């Protein structure tokens, strides 16, 4: 096998049209932008890109017409909103895509690296949290109702209450409710759903900057 380390200018010779490429980085950081731009300059077409949390790198490849398929867990520009090229390509049907859980994609890549066809893992079906941890004292409920490309990133109010119904904590604190303008479900949604739920979880609503003293010995059902 030849040396995999090549000059940036030779990347187009290493990656042929129709090849599969895995792109690193996460959220809005550490993406291989020099390599991405070189693939664009090389005029490659029909690539199958794999990314766990893609961002401007994937959006640039889609906008330049490089990709023929995208397998991903999420593509986001974070506070700058949705990735416009990815969104338009998927909504128009121009870009075939495969949505995977982040864990499922990582396990699949690990299997490929080990040279095996698959690796087993417990799929995201239901929850065994109550059986494993029947006495949860405190839950931090991650809210906001953020969705990107149809993918739910953070729970809305109703989903937050359903999560409490499943794990049955003694106390709960809703968090992540007003950090970004892309949030679609305000805290009031969660408060209304909780009030109508009949749950007996003790709720603690904290103002920004307020602290909560967590003492598991003092948090009882």
Question: How would you sum up this structure, described in words?
Answer:
This protein folds into two domains: 8-114, Glutaconate Coenzyme A-transferase (3-Layer(aba) Sandwich); 130-203, no CATH class. The protein has eight helices and nine strands. It has helices at 11-14, 33-41, 56-63, 84-92, 102-114, 129-132, 157-167, 187-195, and strands at residues 20-22, 47-54, 67-75, 97-99, 138-142, 147-148, 151-152, 171-175, 202-203. The strands form three sheets. It has a four-stranded parallel sheet, sandwiched between helices. A hairpin with a 2-residue loop joins strand 6 (147-148) and strand 7 (151-152). The mean pLDDT is 84.
**CATH architecture annotation name of the largest domain:** 3-Layer(aba) Sandwich
Mean pLDDT: 84
Structural class: alpha/beta
- Specify the oligomeric state: single chain
Number of helices: 8
Order the strands across the largest sheet as they lie in space.
1-2-3-4
Strand count, sense and closure of the main sheet?
Answer: 4 strands, parallel
